[in-house]
Structures are given as structure tokens and as C-alpha cells.
ornithine decarboxylase
Amino acid sequence: MHSHHNALGLASALRPVQPVTLIRPHAARRAARFFVEKFLGRALYAVKANPSPDLLRVLWDSGITHFDVASIAEVRLVAETLPAAVQCFMHPVKAEEAIREAYFDHGVRTFSLDTMDELDKIVRATGNADDLNLCVRIRVSSDHSKLSLASKFGAEPDEMKELLFAARQAADALGVCFHVGSQAMTPAAYAEAMERVRAAIVQAAVTVDIVDVGGGFPSTYPGMEPPPLETYFEVIHRAFESLPISYSAELWCEPGRALCAEYASVLVRVEKRRGDELYINDGAYGALFDAAHIGWRFPVNLVREEASDARDLPFSFYGPTCDDLDRMAGPFMLPADVGPGDYIEIGMLGAYGCAMRTAFNGFGAVSTMVVADEPMASLYETDREVASSNVVQL
Ligand SMILES: *Cc1c(COP(=O)(O)O)cnc(C)c1O
């Protein structure tokens, strides 16, 4: 893969006509090391946030050995990319054929569920296997998160007793899992969820071997700066220590966003300006789904050889398709003299950005380049020495 120092080096050298995904393996490495070293348990990478095989390998090389997968295509991808990785199939509603293939062909032993039907399905599809790790997903509040995952999945607290009891009979190891919603803005989200877990365990009076606090760990975006990740870990560690579970019970988490948000940005070109609206060559059907559909703001930077000294103004973006929905309201703060032909770097698109790209209207093509500079924002301590020593390995 080609590499450049930064967006400006790339834009000056290549004047790219199509958007370019800029990847920063050192940023993903730093995030993975952070979880491996500071989370006192096991961190599974949630593959859906960004399934790029290059990223999977970077995470693996940095000590992430377990992967949270949600579809048979993700199972096959991880099996192919990292044959020694351990996969956990954490979607609570799976096709029976997918469970069978995952279990018999790819060695998957960990499955989540939130109904008796799903438990029966797993038992049937695996031929009454006696080596299953079964994680019962409990519904928790998404109130502290920017993106809810609360309505779709999770057993109600009053259904947990029967489910935990039945899963205990079928499981070698029994777990409880939840998801507080994505981009949880306060550690209190986990404290409250752990209280539900405690109540469910006490009521069911079963031995629990795994407590999986799911994803939801935040990244940093304009207007959404969360407290340090360490404070999330402290809250989770404390709650875990006080649960009525076996002495050897394991603590798991499933970060998606936090491991890869800083991994990628996108370099786009302005094709037209109409007042405070910029028509750019990537959009809602490309890497900017969240910017369009949930009004997410991402950091932006005008990429010009001679920095503009015009003051910043708020702009909105239109994407390249012939569709009014292809609009990102922002506001995105850029120098007042930005115009056609200018390049803009849009940061923090490593999670749920590049992964969402479609080819709608003929605009899916992108190239990918490695850059060595720092991401436009970071939740991790900047260790310039580590970052620059990694450049040579790219
Ligand atoms: C999406 C998802 C994750 C990752 O969530 P983030 O908010 O990106 O950390 C983890 N676990 C499950 C079950 C998920 O569906």
C-alpha cells in the first residue's frame, strides 16, 4: 500500500479525483494496546465497526485475540484473515444455518441469545454440543448513549431468570452480556447496566462464568468529548468485583468504535460551492452515513499548501449522488475562502464510516493510502515516539 506523511503530502502529489481513505495503523495499534493493558479482562473487537482485513491484522498484532462477529460473512472473513483468532457470535438472532457453519466449520463456541427460541436453535444447530459458552443478553438503558441499541435486543429483567436457568443447563460456561448503546457519554451507563446484571444473577441463583459489558466505549468528535476511557474501566472493574459470581469468572468487553474510530479519515474534494454549502465527492452513501442520518459532526481540515488566513465559517455538505438525502448538515467549520478544487480531510471515520460505503449512483470507488501523522482527534495519550517509530513498519 502507498504511504504518505499526511493528507497534504498526498493531495499535492496525486491531486486525487476520487475520495481517498487515509488509514493510520499506528492509531489502531495504540487503541488496541490501551484496551489490552488497561482493561482488566478480555477485549473482543466488534468487527462490524470496520471489517477491513488490514485493520483486523493490526489489532491481532497488537494483542486482540478475540473477535465479536454478528453474521456468517463476518465469521468467514475473520476465519480467513486470522485463522487462530477466537470468534464469539454475539448477535442474539441468528440463522440456524449460520450457527451450524460457525460451530462445525469455524470452531465458534460462544453464542449470545435473548429468547428461549434462540437457545433451542443453538442447541439444535450444534447437535446438543457440550462445549458451548452461552451469553444471555439483558436489555439495559441506552439513555446515556448517542445511538440506542436498546429496543431491538435483550431480554427483559423479568425474563432473565428462566433464560439463565435454561442456558445454564445447556452451557459449559454461562455468561451475561449487554450493550449500553454506542458512544456512551458517561461511565454511569455501565454502572447502571451492571446493577441490572446483579439483580438478574441474584434472582436466578445460577453460577455465572462470564460478564460481558459489550461495546459503547466512546470516541471523540466535535461537540461530543467524553471523559477519559480509564474512568469507564474503573467503574466497570469496581462493579465486576462486587458481583455475586464465581471466583474465576471472566470479564469481557466488545469495543468497536473505540478501537477503530481514529484509524481512518477521508480526503474529499470540493466540486462546487453554493453559499455556505459545499458539494463534495463523498457523502451519505459513502463514508458519511452518520453525518447525514444522525447529524453527527466530524472534524474537518482544509488541505491546502498555503494555509488560508480567512476566518472559519460554518458549512454544510452535499454528497455526490443525485439525491437530496445526500446532505450532511454539520456545521463543519472551514475557512471562508474554501471553494471548488480544494481538498478537505474529514477525520474520525474509522468506525461506522468506511464500513458503510455503498456504490450507489456509481460513487463507491475509493483508494486507500497509509499516512503517518496523528489522527485529527484522539482519546489516547499521544506518544509521538511510538507513533513515528511505527512509520517504518508500514
Ligand atoms: C455494535 C456492537 C458492538 C460494538 O459497539 P461500539 O459502540 O462500536 O463499541 C459490540 N457488541 C455488539 C453486540 C454490537 O452489536
